[in-house]
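User: For documentation purposes, I need each entry recorded in a consistent format: the amino acid sequence on its own, followed directly by the corresponding structure tokens. There are two entries in this batch. Please keep commentary to a minimum and don't merge the entries.

Assistant: Recorded as requested. Entry 1:
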Amino acid sequence: MRRIAILMLAVFLVSSLFAPISASNIAISVEGQQVHATFALSLVQNVTSLPNVSTTVDSSYGSNVSSVFAQSLRDVNPSASPSNLSIGLATTQRGLNLTCDLDVLGVSQRNGDILSVNMTWLPFDVTSDLRAENFSFNTIGSRYFRSVVTHYANASRFVGLANATITGVTFFVNGTSVGAPAAEDYVGNFTTLNFGTLNPNLAQWNRTYTLTNNTTTWRYFPSKLLNFDMQISRKNATTDYVASYGYTATISVPGVGRAQGPILLVDVGSGGTEWVMAAIVILAFVSAIVVQYEFRSKKRRLARFQRK
């Protein structure tokens, strides 16, 4: 009974540790000629204690965030620029929730009823040290993680000595054991606003069309940007220090959208396509009713003929 109680307490502590952190997703929508992106990003970790911050960063904040985003977008697409940029931050000691909203200008062009959207801006990477209330919310790896990993990397050199309190140090990246230098570089180079894993070739994304709301959606599931585990052994106890960060991505357009490489093609005409599709659906429905009626009528006539 005592063992069950201890297990339940452990489950409660772990769940409470990560409770404030939600799943990460990048949602991009196209309405008219406007391209809007929402980045809902979450970091879960117990490598260090992060400061508690809850704030919003936008152009009125007096920071260089807008100019940094503008340069990062131009690095991958010279025509792309951000507008209406806003970043919301909420941290606990064990995690970060970051929400970034922006419109992406200069990437859409209409030719008749066809809107083309150039998605080559997707894999942009913000490398600058961006701060809010003196909290570095982008360069978390170099600012908060590297020193901790370096400390334990140095401590590992004393493992086996008589007075050593640490009896073992093991680093894992994506589930594979790595040496201390590789672990330090891996966590030290981590930034939250790195979207380089988003493949702009939409042929690599999963495409679906939903008739009920007349929407085409592309989904992408890149590998995690941060999947780190550090196991520290002290006498009879081993503690895991983990850091995990990744995201999924969706692109949604109204109507029947298609893609050619990194270019989205959307019919933004007067709605003729939708009427044609609706007519096809209604015709198929009516045809099914007629076929069913004819089948039942034929079955009844056959039954009367057999009774005669």
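Entry 2:
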Amino acid sequence: MSQGIETALRRSLDAVDQRRRRLTWLLAIAGLTVAWEFYRLAQIAPTGDVPRMIVAAVMVLFFSTLGLGVMIVFHLSVATRRILQAIELASPSAASSR
């Protein structure tokens, strides 16, 4: 494999790692927000304030959907990283260094 291709492959692997770290933080924030909104929803329910309950329920649904979307993208980035590593391991320069 030429040096240019190996460099591009290494940059791609680094970009996937960086994106995965960002997604991990986004997933953590979405999870904490969902937990907080469920807590708020439980606090609002006994008061009977229907408009506030609706807003809290919509926030729970929004951030739950966001979390699921982030999880899908996270798994796609893990699969992309595995494919790029397999390409790197299959390269002739990697085979000669074994």
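Summary note for entry 2:
The chain has a mean pLDDT of 85.
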